[in-house]
Fold:
Amino acid sequence: MARKKETHGSSTHALAARAAEWKTILRKMIVIRRFEEATEREFRRGKIGGYLHVYTGQEAVATGILATYRQGDVVYAGYRDHAQTLLLGSDPNGIMAELFGKGNGISHGKGGSMHLFDAAHGFYGGYGIVGGHLTLAAGSAYALRYKETESIAVCFFGDGAMNIGSFHEALNMAGLWGRSGMCPALFVIENNGYAMGTAVDRHSALTDLGARFDAYAIPNEKVDGQDVFAVHALAERAVATIRETGRPFCIEAQTYRFSGHGAADILQPYRSKNEVEEQKQRDPIRLMITRLTEEKIVTTEEVEAMEAEAQQIAQRAVEYAEQSPQPDPAELFTDIV
Amino acid sequence: MARKKETHGSSTHALAARAAEWKTILRKMIVIRRFEEATEREFRRGKIGGYLHVYTGQEAVATGILATYRQGDVVYAGYRDHAQTLLLGSDPNGIMAELFGKGNGISHGKGGSMHLFDAAHGFYGGYGIVGGHLTLAAGSAYALRYKETESIAVCFFGDGAMNIGSFHEALNMAGLWGRSGMCPALFVIENNGYAMGTAVDRHSALTDLGARFDAYAIPNEKVDGQDVFAVHALAERAVATIRETGRPFCIEAQTYRFSGHGAADILQPYRSKNEVEEQKQRDPIRLMITRLTEEKIVTTEEVEAMEAEAQQIAQRAVEYAEQSPQPDPAELFTDIV
Amino acid sequence: MSELTYRDAIHRALVEEMDRDPNVLIMGEDIGVYEGTFRITAGLLKKYGANRVIDTPIAEAGMVGTAIGMAMLGLRPIVEMMTFNFALVAADQILNHAAKIRYFSGGQVDMPMVIRGPQGAGVQLSAQHSQSFEAFYGHFPGLIVATPATPADAKGMLKSAIRGKDPVIFLENAALYGMKGEVPDDPDAVEPFGVSRVVREGAHVTIVSYSRMLVLSLAAAAKLAEEGIEAEVIDLRTIRPLDLDPVYQSVRKTHRAVVVQEQWKPFGAAGEIAASITETVFDELDAPVERVTGEDVPMPYARNLELLAVPHEEHVIAAVKRALYRD
Amino acid sequence: MSELTYRDAIHRALVEEMDRDPNVLIMGEDIGVYEGTFRITAGLLKKYGANRVIDTPIAEAGMVGTAIGMAMLGLRPIVEMMTFNFALVAADQILNHAAKIRYFSGGQVDMPMVIRGPQGAGVQLSAQHSQSFEAFYGHFPGLIVATPATPADAKGMLKSAIRGKDPVIFLENAALYGMKGEVPDDPDAVEPFGVSRVVREGAHVTIVSYSRMLVLSLAAAAKLAEEGIEAEVIDLRTIRPLDLDPVYQSVRKTHRAVVVQEQWKPFGAAGEIAASITETVFDELDAPVERVTGEDVPMPYARNLELLAVPHEEHVIAAVKRALYRD
Ligand SMILES: Cc1ncc(C[n+]2csc(CCOP(=O)(O)OP(=O)(O)O)c2C)c(N)n1
Ligand SMILES: Cc1ncc(C[n+]2csc(CCOP(=O)(O)OP(=O)(O)O)c2C)c(N)n1
Ligand SMILES: [Mg+2]
Ligand SMILES: [Mg+2]
Structure:
């Protein structure tokens, strides 16, 4: 199967033509960054419990992909799910309240960080069992065609998730169903180089991860996941094909997480400080700002305004969450069967 | 990965040089055929219970492969496991007694057809959960290297088994471990075209099954599974490499089962009588006899003698099984923990 | 009413519900072209087409997971397990996903899906193919676990399962597939979950059971009657939710109880039922609640051993006599 | 004797057994380079090398399956589950393979392997990460299920598990990892399975428990003592085999029993224990056996709800008082 690496998805000309869109995308990436920083802070303050996995460093992936979102599409993610939820338009206050375990959280405080959920905005959940949600996405894609819509399912997952059985079962079924146009699904590998502390070449026999999709006859392409223009261009092309054909597609986005695996991953014995610093040179937000400034699509003032706005959104969300009431004890027994 | 189809594994010259070996192989294939016919007969007579899956039509695969067996190797199979057990030198009487559920069966009557087992002869079992034994084989291969032997693990499984999660987990781990020479395993796909009633192109997104091993960076080759010379030649080459390198290898043997999936599969609505008849033209035993007779390696008389001997082995096994006592009731409570 | 086998009753329920609601679809291994190993789905592929009757690869986790993804979007998938032994490879999808998503989403989605197929001991199917899973699934909140014993219940409860909003583990029993019984023709006759039923009245002892063990219990009760012992027999019908009120009521009358299950005793269904009875009507009990269960061993292949491993009528009779201190 | 944490006791057992027997190896996710999410395996990779301390891909079924293949050839693999919630994806390998192969092979192979890791509710880990599985595994013959409550037992029983011939489900509890206790230094001090232990004597009521719930039970007993109620507390230590003889003996003295478990009540461990007590010493009981269990709900994330979902000291105290008819 042909695979090529998309390095810069848009010519200068094309960039200018969609200036407003790029600004929106930049704004969203900045909001994610500030929001995630806030969650880490609140976790350390003991306001957020459980496990916390942030998206810092990977923003360009979900943002570039979900810029193609259309009402009716459904989106799945693992436990690293804050960015997707924000991008789909969930109320940041409701998300933060959920992380605080409050009654007006988007799931009444019953899910928390690993299980964000906002069906009204197309987000069908964050899941805590690695790889378990891939089958769900394949089934939802089937349902969308069964109901004769043009919607698609988008499924985010990590490099580590590619070694578990349900990955295999989901993808083979997706490939099979796709043959008759019954699986409009976009699978997105967020390849950040590590499954917790295990580097890709220590967990996968074939380290060319996208190529594994060849085993299911599913077209696949790699992209620089720190380059939001490239991610977005590839996503637009892939999504158009998926909507048209009802067949699945896979994008391997090569990215990097700047924080630890989860909030408890302090020591990070599996990678060097140097490596992290080097990777931070390719901060997707910084790269985008540089490009957009060079192209005179945004000004420094505009970026500053975005930063301030994002800061405010995150801050407001924390205040909202802090002031929100705990769930009603009766919630314990609802939503079971 | 390079893959080629091995069509005839031995030149005429080479054939003659190993005449004795070919005769042994032919004799074994005939024994399997007669033995399996006997099991089907005894199943219909109500002497064998449970599920029964025979190897008729597929004889060249296990026979060609296991001709490379060396003491210390370990072999795994699914529930279609009579041939492998016979080939490894288990007593046909003990096998038949096992199928009859008798106390002197090779597993004291506690396993039956789907779970033949003969550790003393290197057979580590027939398994009833499709694909479940692949992980076991990978682990045993590891153990063999861990103990610094030159032995290998051989694992037989069907085309249908390739879609279940444990296939994927086993093969990725095998590929990974193989990198450091810690997985001397031969994986053998007995691709008989169907998983029960589901044809390969209806169960696998990528129908080039061997190629799926590319996803684990495991070398793989196809072979005509009705041509025992070809199977054997490829197996010799593959096994030599495996022993030497400690790395896994996959053989896709393209074969066909002449009987139903199991003894209950009478109607066979998934394939036509014509198709079966056509495939029977490529009976692996007939093909071998023709070739060996042409090459004057066996005479018709020799073949007849083999047939008679095989018939007698099967017959004797049935008589032995019939006369054997039931397991001691105390066996119910042994071998648990 | 028509006289139908348990198998045909299930088949009818499928056909009626698929006719009624285009959102109902069924998937499983060899249910289409092959028409099902137990022929429950015979004819469905031809009638409803390949988009509604989906032959899947051998991938139980994939089947259940995709069904969850369908159910959350409003379809009503039915997953056929060729036998429930194979559902172990889908345990995570069933227990960690289907049973919990509604809860952790704060009620944002329903989970209208059914996982159905046979379980239980057959004839010489050995250790990996002979298990019963009602206690296994019954432990997990978020599931409904149905164990119909009659053709009428098989039909009516399967309809409830298909029409409902919850993930239902629908445990059939292959040994019952040929059993006949009167079944309502009304396509809207559904049977609710969580309603146990007294199927035989009696004053001396209460026998509690479900699925195939009910047949055994009724046969034992008939024999006991010949000796003047009148057993009240109760069919639990669903294991989760578990309706023990009729059992408590019965024990208040009989003061003795026997619980019958096919599977291993430790941490099996009968333990829960016995414990609940004791907890609730302790003062009414004239004897400890007796349990009749299979032996605590993996199922052996040999027929003589297999027969020793599963409960028989005589075991129920003996337990009743123990409960009556007549042994 | 040394004072060690439960975590260090486990670590010690691993080191001593790996030193003792080169056939012992350990595998799991992030146990090597990362040194283990709970740091149980810290330092092992450096000490024993990558062939004996194997970082695996995220593939629990693969881990268990390969361990079975190793065990049958005489190695003694230990599989670390990062938490036992993830072992659900390996349910088939554990329940249909590890637990049954010796049986269906007619005893041709042993299965010397250990699957170990933490289980139980933590702090806000939500529905998919907070479960306890002792009843789940306890149901299946062919397994040993260990639930150590103290550092000494954690070490001694893990050694038994590693040295034995059986597949052992070794259920640790993350909330206990930091708990300290006296632990024998003798590398050959092993603790057998199937031996319950009276850890506190008392005449008025018997409290039966295991793992973290033992700590709770002992705390409750101390409070009860202040009110003049002397509870005998029994630690089951293993769930399969289940040694209830000391419990029966105790109940013959106290005539009342309370069973404490963390997980859901229906078809949970306490049901089996309560049923067995009632079956065996019915005439000794002055009150029905009480059960203290978690609520029958998937675990919620919010801390206030979570605290409502799990058992506390007060629940044990209340149950004891019910058993004594003092409520
Ligand atoms: C089945 C299962 N096994 C183990 C875990 C523990 N775990 C949580 S995240 C993780 C690493 C996942 O890595 P990857 O898929 O690459 O995603 P990333 O965190 O890098 O985004 C592991 C092992 C789990 N949640 N589920
Ligand atoms: C996990 C699981 N699912 C379903 C089955 C039922 N089953 C037994 S054999 C079989 C078909 C297997 O086909 P294949 O792997 O091609 O092997 P073949 O029988 O053709 O040799 C199925 C579906 C099973 N035994 N295990
Ligand atoms: Mg990763
Ligand atoms: Mg096949």
Notes: The domain at 6-333 of chain A is CATH 3.40.50.970 (Rossmann fold).
